[in-house]
Amino acid sequence: MSETSRKFLIGMLLFLAAGAGVGWLYGHLDWGLLAATLVALLWQVRNLLNFERALRTGDFETFRYGEGIWEQLFSRFRFERERGSRHKKNHRVLLREVRKSTNAMPDGAVILDVNNEIITCNRAAKRLAGLKRKKDRGQRVDNILRDPGLTELLHSGDHKATVEMMSPVNDGDWLNCRVVPYGADQKLLLLQDITERMRLSKMRRDFVANASHELRSPLTVISGYLDGLADDENIPPAWKKPVAQMRRQAARMRQILSELLELSRLEGAGPAKSDQPVDVRGLIEGTVEALGGHANTARMNIEAESTAKLQGNSAEIETVIVNLLSNAIRYTPPDGEITVSWRSGSEGADLTVADTGEGIDPEYIPRLTERFFRVDKSRSRDEGSIGLGLAIVKHILARHDAELIVTSETGVGSVFRCHFSPDRVVIEPPVPLAGDG
After folding, report:
1. Rounded to an integer, what distance in angstroms lies between the CA atom of residue 382 and that of residue 249?
2. 185, 282: one domain
3. Sign of torsion over alpha carbons 125, 131, 132, 138
4. Domain membership flag for residue 290
5. What is the DSSP letter of 346?
C-alpha cells in the first residue's frame, strides 16, 4: 500500500472516530458515527464530481496543488496523458515516415488484415492497381482485384509463390503479385510491374517461333538433296562419310527446330483443357514398349498401382513420359534399372521415373528445366540431347496444374516425380457385375 493510500485510510478512520466520539459525548454514539460517515461520503462524492468535470473540461486547477488522494490521482492521470500524447506524437511521426518511404517505393504495397481487407496502401498501389487508400480501406482486396490466381494466392498461405495478372488499370500491362507476412495477423501484398519483362518474353518467343518456322523450309530442301546423295549409287566413296554426317546434323537441326516450336507454343498457351480423360497407364505401357528392349538399354519396370486417369491433353502427357524416359535411358548404364510408376491418392497423383544412373549434383538440379541446359554438355551433344526436353516437360506440367520434383544423389540415381493436383485426377467407379441389384 502506498503512503498516500495509508494516509487516506488513517484520515478517514480518525474522522469517523471523531464523529463517534462527539456522538458518545451526547449519548448517541451511533448517530455520531453515521453523521461522520455521511459527511465523509458527501465530501468524496463532491471530489469525484469535480474530478469528472475536470476530465470533461480539461481544467484540473482544483487538483493541481495538494497532497490528498485526489491530487495524487490527478498527478498520475496527467503523467499518463502526457506520456500517451508523446507516444501518439511519435506514432504519427513514425507513420508519416513509413508512409513517405512506402510512397517512394516503385512497387505497390498493400497491408491486409486476416480477412484480406485493406488497411492501407502506398501510391504505387494506386498507380499500378487503382487502389485508393481511404476509399478502399476495409474492402476485401480480392473483391477489387478480381483475378482467380490472386484469390488462390491469398488463401494458400504460400509466401514463396507468385502470381502474374493483367493490370486492372492499364490494358496490356502485367503485375507480379506476392503475399508475405506482415505484423500480427496481417499480410503485405506486393505488386510489381513486369510489363517490360512480359513484352521481352513475348518478343523472344515470337522470334524463336518465327526463326524456327522460317528455317524449316531451307532445311527440308537441304535434307532432300542429302537423302538423294545418300541413295545415289554413283556417289564417290570419299563423299559417303561426309554426306552421312551432314544427314545426321540435318536430322539434329530438325529436332531442334521441332522442339523450339513446341516450346514456344507451350509458353504462349494457357491451361490444358480438362474435358478429356487421359489413360496414363496405357501411355506408360506403350512408351516403355517403344523405347525398351533395345541393345545397351537399361531394364525397365512398370509399377502402375492406379487406374486413375488425368484430365488433360493425351499427346502432351505422352511427351512428358517420352522425354523423362529418354533422359533416364541416356544416363543409365545397360546394367542399370529404370522404374516408371503411376500412383494416386487423396492429395493427387504422381507419375514417377526413377533410374539407377549417374545421378545429378545438387547444384545443377534447380537449372535442369532451363532451355539448352545440359549437365554433361559433351556427352549430351554426342548422344543427341539439346537440352530442351525438361523445359518442355516443365511447361506441359504447368498447363496441367502439376509440378516437377527432382531428387538425385550422385552415383546412386535420380527420381523425376510429376505431381498432379486432385482436380486433374479422375477416379473411375468400378463397373457393376451383371445381376447386381
Report:
1. 11
2. no
3. negative
4. yes
5. T
**Cα–Cα distance, 177 to 194 (Å, whole number):** 10
Question: Could you say which of 69, 94, 119 is where a domain stops?
Answer: 94
Cα radius of gyration rounded to whole Å, the chain: 40
Distance, CA of 346 to CA of 91 (rounded, Å) = 50
Report long-range pairs for 30-35 (Cβ below 8 Å, ≥24 apart). Answer: none
Domain edge (last residue) among 246, 268, 290: 268
Distance CA 220, CA 258 (A): 12
Q: How far apart are CA 281 and CA 272, in angstroms?
A: 19
For the entire predicted model, the pTM comes to 0.61
Rounded to 10 degrees, the C-alpha dihedral 47/48/50/56 comes to 160
User: Domain for residue 100, yes or no?
Assistant: no
DSSP 429: P
CA–CA gap between residue 412 and residue 357 (Å, rounded): 6
pLDDT digits (tens, 9 = 90+) for 8-30: 677 777 777 887 787 787 777 78
Structural element, H or E, at residue 4:
helix 3-25
Q: Which residue range(s) make up the domain with 353? A: 277-426
Domain total in the chain: 4
Q: Which three cell numbers stand for residue 211?
A: 526463326
Q: Which three cell numbers stand for residue 177?
A: 503479385
Closest to 353 in 3D by CA, of 423, 430, 429, 292: 292
Residue-wise pLDDT for 187-235, tens only, equals 889 999 999 988 888 888 788 888 888 888 888 899 888 888 888 888 8
